[in-house]
Amino acid sequence: MTKRRLLIIEDERAILDGLVDLFVFHGYEVDSANDGKLGLDKACTGQYDLIILDVMLPTMDGFAVCNEIRSKDRTTPIVMLTAKTSEEDMITGLSLGADDYVAKPFSIRALVLRVEAILRRSLGDATSDRYLKLGDTLFIDSANLVSVTRDLAQINDALEFTRREVEILRYLIKHSDRPVHRAELLEEIWGYKRATEIETRTVDIHVAKLRKKIEPDAKNPTYLATVRGEGYKLNLGSFVGRN
Fold first, then answer.
1. CATH of 5-122 among 3.40.50.1010, 3.40.50.2300, 3.40.50.450, 2.60.120.620
2. Does pTM top 0.70 for this prediction?
């Protein structure tokens, strides 16, 4: 079996060496970088199954690195390492396209489990339908992660999606007859077991990003609604779409 390749971008030598040894022990092929620019260069020229990216880096911080990676690659999963007390770091990283975050100081076991869960999901959806349909006007090409016109031949202007956003939409479309709880999305989309025990705003921030793309007014959503105490519901019947 081909080993999964990880890139770890972390400037604290003790943490970096420890993470490299940890994931090698768990059967991964691991590359590393101890500053932002070197990490970005490796991310853009190498082929990795997942990137672990620290926020605080010399030469180029993790946010800038994440943003540059996502401008070229919207599919490779990124897990960001953030300061435990900094909710702003977490929100910024997810808004730039990271798949998830782990707060420092972190549990080694928890990090390994999150990486394994994300990789299981990223390898999963090869048989899913390529085109997602939202109402009569918005079609999403899940292979190329862009919106397309009704004839599925032309790319619309400015609607680009990450792999995780497409997975969320696909799941919500499949279950559009009911609200979907955050814990269910964490289990089904991120692959996290016992999701009710995980403290994370990952789902909420991904939903907020989606609303900015598909809603006429993201602050007053009508298509991707919040059902208090129940989760999120995609209202396909009322969907008109964006031009």
1. 3.40.50.2300
2. yes
